[in-house]
Write a structure and sequence with these properties.
This protein folds into two domains: 244 residues, 2-Layer Sandwich (BirA Bifunctional Protein, domain 2); 94 residues, Anticodon-binding domain (Rossmann fold), CATH 3.40.50.800. The chain is elongated, with a radius of gyration of 28 Å. The longest helix has 20 residues. The chain is 38% helix and 21% strand. The protein is of the alpha+beta class. It contains 15 helices and 16 strands. Helix 1 runs antiparallel to helix 5 and helix 5 runs parallel beside helix 9. An eight-stranded mixed β-sheet has the order 1-5-6-11-10-9-7-8. The protein has a five-stranded mixed β-sheet with strand order 13-12-14-15-16, with helices on both faces. Strands 2-4-3 form a three-stranded antiparallel β-sheet. The structure holds adenosine-5'-triphosphate and magnesium ion (MG). Magnesium ion (MG) binds next to loops.
Length: 423
């Protein structure tokens, strides 16, 4: 127990952190290109936020939340997704008083009590964006196009974009009726959870992962056939906009998403590399969430990208080999008498911006040089009696084996010229 991380959680070792840092930077750059600014919200929220925001009858709220009482008896939940907390922050800080739309992005851990498997964990991480305040279909287009450009920047241009519309409150009522009639006839084949949902929230059944339910859903009435004029026009404009900005997509009537807050456009970005957990990005429009959580009526749209799944795809395609970073300098000392001299130089170099290391294991000079070749490092500065007396350090280029003598005072200038970087 003590030496194993809890089920469904993972450590990211340095090699993996380098990959994550790289994709985080690409995500930040892409968001900046589109005018989205970063927001960070707490790791936990009041449970009610998710019950209201995500919906009482969703898988997340019914089965997957990490909920507990704190010592004062408040019900607290570790965030299972990023949108509801950002919506809460939008209301709390009255961001609606800013020029609209307000465009935000985040990088966050999420927690869901699910059965761990490849691409599915109990603690996972999401990149997300949210655009608040505009009902325009061009915002839906922008949200999808940002995700697509982000994937393209990482070398992924073959991912499939599936879009659908699940309508608004008005047109959904007719559809719910048709869906209920259809499913009622097949109720003997539905799983227990879906049986309960038949009365409470039949739309949720469309997102059930149970194979028997999935089979029934093959012939289910399609929501796109029930859209009101406004929703139909909106969807047509999303399609037109995607074509204008060069995003390839397909309409997939099966996509409904697992969260109740969506309205009109929903979409998923899918990779065949992921097997069963094929969705790397999910999102859409949610015009009622802000109001539902106590804010002013605010149309909005956004997405969440699963970072672990993204890393799996990039690894499978060989698109994320990050070479380990070389140190600039290793200071090797002949023996303990030269340590102080070495230490002063070590901290001088670090302060001027060169990465530098020194032995802390009591190694012999030979062992220090062997260690330096393994770290890896570009130059070894060797300090012994001659060097201290003459004030000139022996510098060895560990790639070529070439040696130089360099005045200790000019070590930084020498490195700057060699490495070509500013101090
Ligand atoms: P799924 O249908 O695979 O359970 P979801 O619809 O629950 O996904 P969202 O809530 O839309 O997923 O979250 C957005 C993205 O976060 C998903 O597309 C996926 O990439 C990632 N994700 C969701 N749940 C997990 C998890 N348990 N482990 C790792 N990544 C996850
Ligand atoms: Mg899920």
């Amino acid at each position: 127990m003590l030496t194993k991380a809890p089920r469904g959680t993972r450590d990211l070792l340095p090699e993996e952190c380098a990959k994550w840092l790289y994709i985080e930077n690409v995500f930040r750059e892409t968001c900046t290109l589109f005018g989205y600014q970063e927001i960070r919200t707490p790791t936990f929220e009041h449970t009610e936020l998710f019950q209201r925001g995500i919906g009482e009858t969703t898988d997340i709220v019914e089965k997957e939340m990490y909920t507990f009482e704190d010592k004062s008896g408040r019900s607290i939940t570790l965030k299972p997704e990023g949108t509801a907390p950002v919506a809460r922050a939008y209301i709390e800080h009255k961001l609606y008083n800013n020029p609209l739309p307000v465009k935000l992005f985040y990088i966050t851990p999420c927690f869901r009590y699910e059965r761990p498997q490849a691409g599915r964990y109990r603690e996972f991480h999401q990149f997300g964006i949210e655009a608040f305040g505009s009902p325009s279909p061009l915002i839906d287009v922008e949200v999808i196009a940002l995700a697509v450009l982000f994937f393209e920047k990482l070398g992924l241009s073959q991912l499939e974009v599936h879009i659908n519309s699940i309508g608004c409150k008005a047109c959904r009522e007719d559809y719910k009726k048709a869906l209920k009639d259809f499913l009622f006839k097949k109720k003997d084949f539905l799983c227990d959870t879906c049986l309960l949902r038949l009365e409470r929230n039949p739309l949720r059944i469309l997102d059930c992962k149970n194979p028997n339910c999935q089979k029934i859903l093959e012939d289910v009435p399609k929501i796109v056939d029930y859209l009101c004029d406004d929703c139909r026009r909106h969807f047509a404009e999303v399609e037109k906009g995607l074509t204008t900005v060069g995003v390839k997509y397909q309409v997939n009537p099966g996509i409904v998403r697992g969260l109740d807050y969506y309205t009109k456009t929903v979409f998923e970005i899918i990779s065949e590399e992921l097997g069963a957990q094929s969705t790397v990005c999910g999102g859409g429009r949610y015009d009622n969430l802000i109001e539902e959580c106590g804010g002013p009526h605010t149309p909005a749209a956004g997405f969440g990208i699963g970072i672990e799944r993204l890393v799996l795809i990039l690894e499978a395609k060989g698109l994320i080999e990050i070479p380990s970073k070389e140190m600039d300098v290793f200071i090797a000392v002949m023996d303990e008498n030269y340590r102080e001299y070495g230490l002063q130089l070590l901290y001088r170099l670090r302060k001027t911006g060169f990465s530098a290391e020194m032995d802390n294991m009591g190694r012999s000079l030979k062992a220090q040089m062997k260690y330096a070749s393994k770290i890896p490092v570009k130059y070894a500065f060797i300090i012994g009696e001659d060097e201290v007396k003459s004030g000139k350090i022996t510098v060895k280029d560990l790639a070529t084996g070439e040696q130089d003598k360099v005045s200790c005072d000019e070590a930084e200038i020498y490195l700057k010229n060699k490495i070509r970087k500013g101090c």
